[in-house]
Protein 1
Amino acid sequence: MKASPIKSAVLACMLGLGSLGVYAQSQPLKIGFIGTLSGPAGALGQDQYDGLMLGIEHLGGRLGNQTVQVIKEDDQLKPDLGVEIAKKLIERDRVNIITGVTFSNVMMAIHKPITDAGVFLIGSNAGPTPITGKGCSPMYFSTSWNNDSLHESMGVYAREQGYKRVYLMAPNYQAGKDALSGFKGQYKGKPLDEVYTTVNQPDYSAEIAQLQAAKPDAVYVFYPGGMGVNFVKQYQQAGLLGKVPLLSASTVDGTTLPALKDIAVGVITGSPYSPDLDNPQNKKFVEDFRKKYNRVPSLYAAQSYDAAMLLNSALLKTSGKIDREPLRAALKQADFRSVAGPFRFNNNQFPIRNFYRVDVGRDGSGQAAFVTRTTVLKDHPDPHASQCPMK
Amino acid sequence: MTLSLFLIQLLNGLQLGVLLFMLSAGLTLVFGIMNFVNLAHGCMYMMGAYFAATALAASGSFIVAAVVAVLGGGLLGIVIERLMAQHLYMRDHLDQVLATFGLILFFNELARWIWGASPVFMSVPPALSGTVSILGVTYPMYRFFIILVGLLCAVGCWLLISRTRVGMLIRAGSVNPTMVSALGVNIGLLNALIFSLGGALAGVAGLMSGPILSVQPGMGEPVLILVMIVIVIGGIGSIQGAFYAALMVGLIDTAGRAFLPMLLREFIDRSIAQAAGPAIASMLTCIFMATVLALRPRGLFPVKNG
């Protein structure tokens, strides 16, 4: 027992040194990832996560020369769970940066809690209008788009093609209504009909028969995830694909094309990204994504890869420090090369970017693939930026 | 509304109806005879679709896919019955619901683990990929095929139930299971058989749905709700009731989606009709069920108990 004070002193020293040693190895930079990873839409969040991780891998596991630890959380497409996760990431894991977020309803729930806590939120998919316009935040940056913008390119396209009778279809929820209003805002004309279907409806035979009887010039749909697979399959089986042009957004993408293959050839999409975009960073991204995950990256993956590149560029400028104003200024410069082409931030910290007409065609080996046709909207700002009070 | 459109919607309703029948036949027997609420029935449908898609991708033959889906579904039915369901027959419905809900989570995760979160590929067999023109409107040939297969399944079920010894035991079991077992019938074997029959029919439904729907984790749940409505309307335990109720529900659901928004537009503002149409259409089948329950609490074709 005599030796015990010395023993414990030595022990304390060892412990102290030990923990100091761990500290000297440098604390990794912790980043929170929130995405919808389970349920019918789980593939979207998975693509976001894989894109982000590939970006970090390309940067040698570091962002701004700092080792990164990504804490992955699944919001299960439940806004309340999203808020819980965000709180946990901020209070327990003490992250200063959160990225991802797949769906608008989750984004609406967590946007305020995160940005109010002084944590940077880099959204890489959902872009609901309220946070684009009046509710914009200095702590929020988007590498994706405003929900309306995603649908404007096909509206412009339909107008330019002179389609007089356009038939619109979308699921009966907020993003579905945003989609059709975004389309109509640019299309200008009066659509032949607008049909809203139940969310996650598997069969569209009744609606497709009505559509066929209305004899439209073109059809515009927004059916993300499995709904898109259902709709495109049934549209094609009704003998309409190739006869009545099918314009769409987020309906056929990297996550659903493997389930459709040749069935989808002929679908026209409006998209901010295509795997065949001709720039060196995209070539590298697509090639390595295919190699690593054995599938073609979607826009969700591309936007998340961009988020990694954006964070890296800003953290390099601040020498890895996460101080609010300097990091924000560095992020605003968007000093990185986006896989989707030109990219800079607007006053609301949403990108000014291109939107392309991307068709489902065939690649060199005859496989169904995305083929970029034209740039429908060049350096396009979203329509709500002027309502954002930030300069 | 033209005649051709009406015909096409009639076919669509019929097609949905026979698909619902294939799913509800097994479920209604399990519910009626074992008094067992099986929420995991949709999983057998999903697994059937996955089995078919995998077999089709590997062999390129729709017939091989059909055999695999039917055998796989049937086998899965036996496995679920032996490993889990048989231990729960005597428990109350809440326990059964909890246990089979757990199975839903298990199978959805299993599917995600094996096949991934993204939908898998499955297409219509080339011989059936064309369309048929009905009075100027085209209709997919494959959907005719679904109707044909569904009706064949219905005839098969009818023959099995009304013309065979096994069918007689099933009928007896649905009326008075205790008496059947008291008479020396191996009720355990009968139960497993019914479960596997339900699984095999769900497998057929999965196989037939694969080419028109997205084969992905969780695909069994939306349809399960309609199937539950069907068995309640038809009368629990009644195959005949399941058949008629499935057709009714299929037709009502299709008619609601096709014509209700149009009809509503005649009376109320267009934008309100657009939003309310699909909401009311999806309620129609439930309203129908409520009406039936109010007038005939045991369903339209109840099984007559002793």
Protein 2
Amino acid sequence: MEKIINVKDLTKVYEVPIKQGFWKSIFVSKNKELVAVNKVGFGIEVGESVALLGPNGAGKTTTLKMLTGLLYPTSGDIEVLGYTPTDRKREFLSQIALVMGNKTGLSWDLSARQSFTLFKTIYQIPENIFEKRLTELTELLDATEYLDTPVRKLSLGQRLKMELVGAILHRPSLLFLDEPTIGLDVVSKRKIRNFLRYLHREEKTTIILTSHEMADIEMVSDRVIVINNGQIVFDNSLEKLLHNYQDKKYLTVTFTKPVAIDKLSKLGNIIDSKELTATLEIPREKQGKVMARLTEKFPVDDIDVRSIPLDEIMEDLFAKTR
Amino acid sequence: MKQSVFEEIRIRWVILRANALFSLRESLAYSLNNWGGLASTVVYMLTYLVFLSAIFGKVKSVAGYNYSEILLFTLVTQFNFYLSWIWSIKNLDRLGEDVKSGKLDLILTKPLPALWYVTFQKVDLFMLVFEMWPATIPLIYLLLKNATFQIGFRGLILGILSFVVGHIAIHCFQFLLALVTFWTGEYRGLNGLGYQIAIFGDSLPLEAYPKALMSMGFTAVPFLIHSGLTTSLLLGKTTDIRWLFLATGVMLAFLFIKNKVWSLALRQYSSASS
């Protein structure tokens, strides 16, 4: 497969001013170096959907911004779509799009449709194609009805849908998303995730995503790059990451009447219990045996089997690589 | 996919038109602000005209300019003032805000010549049509009524050239001040300073300034070209064309520096996250 992104030894060091007295800071200001990204290297192929994960300050957004040409690397090489991003060539910028959950590219005082008209000019989209594309995207996102509402009157979810529409009107081959579902309600999140999945599957858009929402990753991304302290600590498929943690299972058991917790604890580690429910953590290989014992010895109404949640996997991975 | 120069110009023109229309729609979203703006500039103009008539009731001339010549000078300064607000000052403020908030990200990732785009992002046609002309009508009326001078063809051409050259030069100077925001994240004070320096040259005719200030006002801080030199050329008080050549050289130097410092500023851009 053709590589769309090639990154080698990528490093970004920020100069951060050291807090000093007023006069000192004016005449002899001192800075300290903060390594945000440290000799990172990876390649991304055409059509992949990749999540950049990491705790706050890990370096994922800095990496994303270097990939889009917003930040100049301190050292290392980046090639995106065959271009050096910071050269900001029109041919390069015409093929990418950036959506940031906490920033708006739409005019606050005008309707989204009016902003899109400006984008149409910037991306030189022919009128008939523009109209067709706009209808298609707004229908997919259930956003047609507020296309003509001033952006300042839209809810966060509605505005973010419009941001997405505006970003991909020109059919970018590479879409960068920085926390695209931040602050959204459950319904809006799901709609946006489905939409991103559609873009990836149907339009073959390569997606690079950063998010703290594990559900975003599970629904949108096939591959995960985990960054911690400016370095890559995991780079593989989501399945591989989940597989690494599949030595445990969680059984959430619902009983028909209250049970003795001390008896239950003999079957596994109890991580949560209420009057008629309890969650047990057990080794994967004991799953069958434990379920049989449960139904045999306890008044079981229902058993729900879960793998370790992605959130906990991440927490563990961040802790191990701190 | 390299575009020809003509294609590049065509694209910029189309985007400029779209931006102007876009800015007009933004202005129309706040009608009360617009009427307030018009009222304040009309009040300012009337107050200033009363002030001028009071001064010229006592003296015959200021720096060799009689009442009608001062009215012409005032008209030039007013055109400069409005032109600055129509495209320059608002864009500098927006640039400062966008750098500070990181919103510049969304411009830098679009296929646009970024420096050109941030220079012309807002072109306030509303101000041009609904503020500039109504507010200057009393001044134009008084000027026509009291005109005691004649503007020759040569003076007119040189004056227009000086107006354009001076306007670009002072804009570049203000833009350089605004670029400091890429290093400091602060812009309001410096933008205010740039604005005050620009209108410093609008307070008195060119001939009123001492030689040292004139040297500075034509070179390092080009505040004497857009109004001072322009009016002097229009009235034929300055006939030496070398002043205009000097002004053009300064403008070109400032355009060059603007480009270079912009490239440095982008390297410094930290793209605030939220």
Protein 3
Amino acid sequence: MTDALRITRGTVYDPANGVDGVVADVCVENGRIVAVVPESARRIDARGMVVMPGGVDIHSHVAGATGNAARRLLPEQHAADAEPAPALTRDGPLARSGAGGTVPTTFTTGYRYAGLGYTTVFDAAVAPLYARSSHAELDETPIVDGGFYVLVGDDAYLWQLIRTGDRPRARQYVAWLLSATGGYALKIVNPGGVEMWKRGHRRRIGLDDPLGSDSVTPRAILDTVCDVADTLRLPHATHIHCNDLGLAGNVATTLATMQALAGRRAHFTHLQFHAYAIGADGRRRSGARELVDYVNQHPEVSADVGQVMFGPATTLTADAAVEYLLYKSSGRKWVNSDIELETGCGIVPHTYREKQAVSALQWVVGLELFLLAADPWRVVLSTDHPNGGSFMAYPELMRLLMDRAYRDDCLKRVNGSLLQGSALADGLSREYTLNEIAIVTRAGPARLLGLTQKGHLGVGADADVTVYTPDDDWSVMFSTPRFVIKGGMVVVEEGQLRRAPAGRRLHVRPDFDRAIEAPLRSFFERHATVSFDNYPIGRLRDAPVATE
Amino acid sequence: MTAERIEPHVTCLGCGCACDDVDLTIRQGRIVDTGRACGLGAAWFGDGSTTAGALIDGRAASLDAALASAAELLRQARHPLVYLAPGLSCEAQRLACALADLCRGALDNVSSSTVFHSVLASQEIGRATATLGEVRNRADTVVLWDVDAARYPRLAERYAIDPIGLDIPDGRRGRRVISVTARAAAWPDADQHVPLTRADEVPTLEVVAALLNGVTSPTGAGQVWAVASALADVLLQGRYVAVLADAEPLAAGAGPLEAPGRAAALWRLSHALNHRTRGAVIALRAGGNRTGAESVMTSQAGYPMAVDFAGGAPRYRPFNGAAAAHLDAAGVDAVLVAGDARALDTELLARIGAVPSGVVGPAASDGPLAKSRVAIDTARAGVHEAGTALRLDDVPLPLRSVLNGPPGASDLLAQLTALIK
């Protein structure tokens, strides 16, 4: 089913190639977009339909030991959302049943992403120690191409190198780590805060606070990792979850972090959770405008929003200190897992409610970030699945961005007690166009990820294409694609999932000087509980993405 | 030529600690030395020999005929159970899950027999836990909660008591070690011993947690309060407290299930350790990649044990001793055991033997289900078959093939699936 295919006369949105709602044919052969196909090629009549590249999720939590710990914690959600196996064609892999909820099982995750027209997904936080498990889960998350970012911000060996100021060795170590784990990018979570939580420190930490050594500070961690990402020419900027997630007044921390990295490539993730000001009355307020102003003026900065959607969610993060606070305030069940030498993990189920003041503020802040952002290429869509809500809520989020009347109706229903001075409450008239939606869900994330084959429909791109039937309700349109083509294979036919090929692994393998191995082996022998030689995952089936 | 070779840093599945630093010496196709492995590990590796054959109704058969017979067993069943016994790699466990899904059968693993309450309590309460390396590098206070040292022989040396850690530069001298005992023998090298009666174990856990949660002790409240207060005081002096508790305190087949309320009390304690200090409870597990089975079932089916695909999608059926309960309820009319049937308890084996059954696993033709409808020998994961296993803290480790052996369980389960599909 990867034969030649012509998608005829659809209305094409391909912003990376400047195509904005042009009626055109899209041709596919051997898994790639091509200029022409033979007359005998299969045709999909897309007249009146919307054609876009496959969706690209830059920040999600779908594959790995910590996500699986969340899955294990949610039998009640799975019981309420049992998912029978899809009716796949019999010539392909076995169709698998599963369970949904906010943390679906692996096969169901792949099917559901593809069922929304998404064809590329990244897990945003994997402890290197658990990389093997993340690959195993990605192997069982069909259809979507995927990869993950490795957590390095609180890594004990890296901290030793920061302490001694050995930047060259830090580069070698990180390159080794990416190669050993098959990761795609570098992730920092609450720089320094994860280790401080493990040490029992409960105070907020500032960018220049020493972390057991004068030379190790959150600023030094950010500086080192961003420098390493640049010198290794990684395709994606360092993916940064700032300090103080969720805390009132954290917009100052977020701005200070951005300023600390001014002029350098950096991606600030789930910005919504880091955009709270404090009003004159001492209560939490939106800090979205302040933050967006900075982002708008600094082209080196990119972000994903981490929109909150009303309903059930599962908070799941390496920022384990935050989860402790959420556990204490909510009284819900709580998992904490301290992960040796590398990072931590916390999990608390959560429900965002319209009538709850903080939930409503979070919902508003996210929408403000979207609607005030001048450049959709740099402020892209995420719910930080499953933290702000499930990826299954993306169509609803797209409707909120595209349909002001609907959005205003929703706004009327929310608790407004923390919304004084909110730009959204004051009236934001912007409505995203289809072209802008294609940017924030496809072209933008692909560009930020450095995936030249993804997020567009130019000749040579991966043939990942979604065909939607327009509907008055944008959420209906985006939740039920008519066709989804992945790598040239028609996986959704007439709205039904029919094929579920394995996805490709997206990873990097930067060169490193093998001289790093001797001191690293010595560190492993002293402190690790896994043998140095057993740590690397070995070769992956798919070739790495180039880092030059 | 005396062809002797060393296979370095091999992972041992003798217990859940899964030490991966074992150097095996191999001569003439046999393991002749197991290096750093403990006695349990040496026994687990053995000399690397295993049976290689297949039986149908106890009589020798070709592999193809045996696979066809196993396929027939599953095809004819109205509601088969696929049971993940210990001794499978995660890769084989994944294939066994697929088989249960395909057959719309039940799917279970030993956790429903040995750590049933622990799993359910962790799902209701959550847990604060850590990887073993956190104990090694950070824990200045280590509580062995009713842990029999003989069941985890290298726990002290490699993970918990003796090592010099990043934050424990003085090693053993830098740690306070407390041995709490209700069934197990006292930990040999503890600084402090807290003997409890079995009846007092759960109340003591609950009171320690309450005290750590800030409840104040009433005066003259009795022995449990006195012991718990003293223990809570000690725990609060720790910077990082690791409580290591045997989640499977009695070996399979050797007695009753977990004490009611014990697991829930341990998980509540794990939370309570984190208000005024930091800490974790780590559930120690026996060998054979047991946590792998839970992890794989969770990732594919959403639940770590006791799954039923009968309705075409996974449902949680956590009856106490789930597999046995399924069998008793006459819902299950055939059983395929994947893995090492020798690791199953006698009660479950008896019940499995009462319905048409088969086994695909190491030494199947020489094990307790050899006389069942079909028994197919497989390689032993980690000796003849490569793959992955999870340590008791879910840390994934590679399994190596160090010797030639019969076909691997992954290979055979894939073939079986293809026959049924």
Protein 4
Amino acid sequence: MNSFSNIIFYILTFLSVYVQVFFLITFFEKKNKILVRKGSIDLDEYHGVTVIVPCYNEAQTIQGTISSLLDLDYPKDKLNLIIVDDGSRDNTWEVIKEFEKYPNVKVLHKENGGKYTALNLGLKYTETPFVGCLDSDSFVDSQALKRIMTYFLDKDTMAVAPSVVVDKPKNILQGAQKAEYDMAIYNKKMLAFLGGIHVTPGPFSIFRKKVFEDLGPYRHAHNTEDQEIALRMQKNHYKIEHCPDAYVYTIAPNSVKKLYRQRLRWIYGFIRNVIDYRKLLFRKEYGTVAFFTLPSGIISVLSVIFLFGMVISNIIHFILKKIAQINTVGINHTTSQSLNFDFFFFDTKAIFFVSIILYTSVVVALLLGRRMLEGKIRFSFDILYFMIIYSVLAPFWLLKAIFNALRSRESSWTLEREVKIAKKQNATTI
Amino acid sequence: MQQQSDWKRYVIVFFITLALFLTAIYLSDYFGNKKVAELKSIQDNISIDILSSETQFSLLSELSCKNVSDSVLAGELADLGHKLEWGEKNIDSSGELTYLRKYYSLLEIKDYILMKKVSARCGKKAAFILYFYTTAANCSECENESLVLSTLRDKYPELRVYSFDYTTDLSAVKAMLDIYKIQDTKLPALVIDDNLLTGFQTIDTVEARIKQSFKLQTPKPATTTKKTTN
């Protein structure tokens, strides 16, 4: 049993290190192509862009979000904002109504139907060749849109994702998320180089309107419509770019409960979307998404769960051993052994070195992301918080997400059966 | 063209990852060998100490007992045993360690014989336990007995415990098994003052036996041993 779990451990670690090396090789190959601009730039041509802001009970933050959009360094007559209140129960509607006075702002109200329905309503009113969205808990940097629009000079580029940065972390949990988001900037850019982006994040991804005209509007997609649209685009060979110097600041969840809920939704959405788009997996025509992005996502889910299982089983083993020890020789004698440490007993099995390689590769990814963001490599406690907090918490939302994915699949299957039975009964009555 | 370069990347990354893993395995092997070398060196030192004490004992047998030192401190041999046991579980070079285990068993027997002689002739306070266990089967009672013995060893510095793995393929160990009629079905087994105890023995039982053993060696019955508390 032990050697079997060791083999699984080695396979999963090998694949996890493989993912990191893959990114690193791409980085060294393409690092001269990473464009990070300082200050304002001028475009030869300014295309019309509509930004849709769906909001639900966001009275506290929506003002800042809209103001940041109004402050964008982009010609006002080329920038339209559509704010959609998705049936908020607080005073969001009153707050957004205040912005109606701006000629390029349209405010809409609808019955609550979920984020994707608010986005689709906004899409109906979009008349510009480019359209994007901005989550109502995020703020854009004034240069973000101009920088994103430079990527559309390439006629094949159909969507551009920005760099999402955690806005002013105030506690350890937000600090840990900042480190994670910094790493995601690096990962996303590398995926963009290889054409393998699988999420166009809710905060300020810009699309050619043609994407929605060709492929249809947003879908419910298990509450992760930003993953689904990206996968739909990949399925249709639409190119997605990443603009590392287009910064969007987002307010990260400030409590474990909120973070848990957010990640549960993301991971659940990822699992369900992978199931929905399983035909992409390992198909040559879909390139990096098929062979790298989706498989590496699956590997990371499995690895975290496996590691968690291993740690739990080690802890249980340790506790049982301690109990046996106390039962045999009494509590007074059980503590003395650990006091004299000898280097001889330091574990130098291959597993130890392999783990060091894996952790180092994650830290390197994080530092490279930070270098892309801040222009320099900077160590901080955030990295440590990220490693510790995510090691402890991630297994819980991952396990729950898998559990939910399995359960809802079963229930939808049952539902399908029920529908069939109902149809049969109808047929007989007719 | 693009797809070809993609394949190249997948293959190159595979070999780099493989190289990293081989480095990890190499490092593990390197430190494992260093530890085996450390064990060897400790054993060599202990071996010299025993040999030296034996020689000293023969030379000075007619003279004063004051000059005879303990061949090896009980803790030293126990510490080596502890490291050896840990190494057998955690270092992947079983061949070397099997050899070291045999060597260790031999040193234990030599130390046992010598210290018994020293104790008998010079009237030194000492207690000896021969402990037989097995690593062949999953013997949880053996693990508990080891715990009991190491606890008692910490408590009584004069106690010398000699542990023997039943499966050790060494004629000297086999001779010990024959002498004390140890059977693999009745492990763990303890020999205290030539009495055989089979199965798990609680800390109280063994401690009582040790105290008894100390008493036997005390020349004047009037002398009382200090009462010990658990």
